[in-house]
Design goal:
The chain is of the alpha/beta class. The chain is built from 8 helices and 15 strands. It has a 5-stranded parallel β-sheet with strand order 2-1-3-6-7, sandwiched between helices. Strands 11-10-9-8-15 form a 5-stranded antiparallel β-sheet, with helices on one face. A hairpin with a 4-residue loop joins β9 and β10.
Length: 231
């Protein structure tokens, strides 16, 4: 999942970025509205985390503008403005949730996942294919009922493949979802990540296979006669 973080407090932004990346999110970070506005038009983000008091304007302007332009990306406001009127204005402008600083990073991550699980959001609750299942709320992978430990970014890649199971997920889509703008992605980074994931699944006894569409992308295939199930 790819997130936009708009926060001008460097120390807080550093902390949030590290926490979210540890959860498997790719994070693009901005400190001002102008740059965030341009990126939101060009990049298919799954979620926006938005501070309100920014050096070049009020974050609520970006919320309102995005909704006028029919950009439906979920927006979670993170701000020190804790008045009832502030919260009401934020939600009325089109924000999907409102979190007052200071907050625990665990709560922020939980709210992110909750927004992404909403109808039409990027997450379901449980994805299943063959003897493989992924609980997107707990961020747990199971093979035949046994927990399969998996690093956050690898888990995120598996989730993307499971959501596109039965069809080719392009390299461009993987790049857009898994890597932030600042990441230096080597030419074979995606191939290496797929190779690691493929080995892990084979070793665990998963009965799904990752098929390579050369030059295009990858397809997660179920065992014969099985269909993907989204809970």
């Amino acid at each position: 999942m790819r997130l936009m973080l708009v926060e001008d407090n460097d120390r807080l932004a550093d902390s949030l970025q590290l926490s979210l990346e540890a959860e498997g999110f790719a994070v693009d970070r901005f400190a001002a509205l102008a740059a965030a506005r341009r990126a939101l038009v060009d990049v298919p983000y799954d979620l926006v985390l938005l501070d309100l008091g920014l050096p070049d304007g009020d974050g609520l302007d970006l919320v309102a503008e995005s909704r006028r332009r029919r950009i439906s990306t979920p927006i979670l406001v993170i701000t020190a403005r804790d008045g009832l009127g502030d919260r009401v204005r934020g939600l009325d402008c089109g924000a999907d949730d409102y979190l007052v600083k200071p907050f625990a990073t665990a709560e922020l991550s939980a709210r992110c996942r909750a927004l992404l699980r909403r109808p039409g959001g990027a997450l379901g609750t449980v994805l299943e294919l063959g003897n493989l299942s992924l609980d997107t709320s707990r961020r747990e992978v199971h093979v035949a009922g046994r927990v399969l430990p998996m690093p956050p970014r690898e888990l995120s890649l598996l989730e993307q493949l499971m959501r596109g199971s039965g069809r080719t997920v392009t390299k461009a889509a993987i790049d857009a979802s898994q890597y932030a703008l600042r990441d230096e992605v080597t030419p074979n980074a995606i191939e290496t990540a797929i190779s690691r994931l493929r080995r892990r699944l084979v070793k665990s006894g998963a009965d799904v296979t990752i098929h390579t569409a050369h030059g295009i992308g990858y397809m997660l295939m179920p065992p014969c006669g099985s269909e993907p199930r989204h809970g």
